[in-house]
Amino acid sequence: MKKRNWVLWLFEDDEKIDLLKIMEFKTIKEMGYVLDVEPRNISNWFHGLIKPRGILKNCVLYQTVPFC
């Protein structure tokens, strides 16, 4: 089974110029726990269904691609 991870870039402000931290998570649920945001809101934001709110304004989220 191929595993994908989530990589979150956290910036100091919503202008996304100064990188504060890079974090890697196995699930969106883990990310929600750390950020104190509902996993549903993170998923909806990632898929473009809602605008970023709260700490998500300061984030960029990537999903890694596994190698075969």
Structural overview:
It is built from 2 helices and 3 strands. The chain is α+β, with helices and mostly antiparallel strands. It has one domain (6-12, 23-63). The protein has a 3-stranded antiparallel sheet with strand order 2-1-3, with helices on one face. α1 (28-35) crosses α2 (39-46). The radius of gyration is 12 Å and the shape is globular. The mean pLDDT is 92.
Summarize the biggest pleated sheet: 3 strands, antiparallel
The low-confidence parts are none
Question: Which class do the helix and strand fractions yield?
Answer: alpha+beta
- In total, how many beta strands? 3
The coarse overall form would be globular
Q: What's the total helix number?
A: 2
> What is the ordering of alpha helices and beta strands?
EEHHE
Q: Which sequence of strands runs across the widest sheet?
A: 2-1-3
Distance between the termini: 10 Å
Global Rg: 12 Å
Give the amount of beta strand, in percent. 25-35%
Q: What's the rounded overall pLDDT mean?
A: 92
> Helix amount, in percent?
10-25%
Helices and strands, with pairings:
Blueprint: E1 6-11, E2 19-25, H1 28-35, H2 39-46, E3 59-63
Antiparallel strand pairs: 1-2, 1-3
Helix pairs in contact: 1-2
In short, what is this structure?
The protein is an alpha+beta fold.
Short key terms for the protein model shown above:
three-stranded antiparallel β-sheet, globular, 2 helices, 68 residues, 3 strands, 24% helix, alpha+beta
